[in-house]
Specification:
By secondary structure, the protein is an alpha+beta fold. It has two domains: about 110 residues, Rieske Iron-sulfur Protein; about 220 residues, Naphthalene 1,2-dioxygenase Alpha Subunit, Chain A, domain 1 (Alpha-Beta Complex), CATH 3.90.380.10. Helices cover about 15% and strands about 30% of the residues. The protein contains four helices and 21 strands. The strands form six sheets. A seven-stranded antiparallel β-sheet has the order 11-21-20-19-18-14-13. A hairpin with a 5-residue loop joins strand 5 and strand 6. The longest helix has about 35 residues. The chain is globular and about 85 Å long. Bound molecules: FE2/S2 (inorganic) cluster and fe (iii) ion (FE). The site of fe (iii) ion has 4 residues, from loops. Fe (iii) ion (FE) binds next to loops.
Amino acid sequence: MSDAPYQVTGLKRGVTRYPNYDAAILGFRNYWYPAMRSSDLGHKPVALTLFGEKIMFYRDQGRACALEDRCPHRGIRLSIGKQEFPGTFTCRYHGWTFDLKTGLVVAALTDGPKSPVCGRAGVVVYPVEERAGLVWIYHGESPAPPIDWDVPGELLHKDRAVGIRISDRPGDWRHAAENGFDEGHGKYLHRDSIFVTFQHPPAWVHSDVIAEDDGWITRSTKDFAFQDDYPGLGRWPKMRRWKTTKILSRASIRLPGTLRIHFGEWIHFEWYVPTTPGRHRYIQLAIKHARGLDALLFKLRYWTYLRWLFHGRFNDQDARVVEMMETPPEQLFGPDRSIIGWRKLAEKARVIAGGEPAAASAPPSRTETGSTQQFVSEES
Ligand code: FES
Ligand code: FE
């Protein structure tokens, strides 16, 4: 049985062949996720909700960090506070001051320097790293696996030009991921997009899902037609003179919800980071391995039309349907083999053997009572 209200698969609510996937309302634990652009994180806190948890991002002495965005004293958001001392952050209400590395209270300013609260209360600190112009956060049990397990190798190439677009969207992250890897809709939903004005998408593609290195599964084309006869109806689609390029894209997906599409000399990535039930943060990244003038020209290309026409209008067509999708019930057809492949992969999501149910450094207790009650940090 799944957690029925947010189940996404199957013929009937309450009955699922993908129990892990259907239970992953707020995403899979034990993965690194991109959260925001590195360039958007400065000396001003950024408050986000990810995986159902309120999280404050902050840059201290050049280093990105992330804390539970809730002061344990009276429960207000830490992110409205400010920095009084390097390496710390102070709550706006009564001045409890938290060490940014451990999350522990190092001073309660309005209780004097000898406050007994020091060392006895704190907030969760999340593992954070920066790669490829993005701030990444680890969501799951400790110890965190190496971030390079979850950052696609293409992003670590030293010569690269990158364009990033981030939006918070309605829609379940699993519907967004399934839409991303869906074989069928690219040939119909996007057919009138300005981005493909000069391209001719196929009428249909039959594909298999194949496993590749580094945890990717890929749609592998077996058969296709750019135009075909539909009995009793006629030929479809119309071949347009100005559509000079015939396209067959190569799409792959891997956990925890990372899509990769090869467009020849550049690659598109997207992530569906769960925020609250039924919503997600949609992170798109276009990358070309290039340097010098070539890199500059790709940046120019990104900012003049790829961002607008592809990351914007084309993928906004997806946003509309992802928001509308209501399953179960669902009736799948042949092209949905891709979706089934992804669901099967998702059932094998990572488990950290013997992991602790906490972020990197959970403080020992909440101190409102001074008790030794264990600090529960990441239950979603
Ligand atoms: Fe944060 Fe009181 S609520 S110090
Ligand atoms: Fe699409």
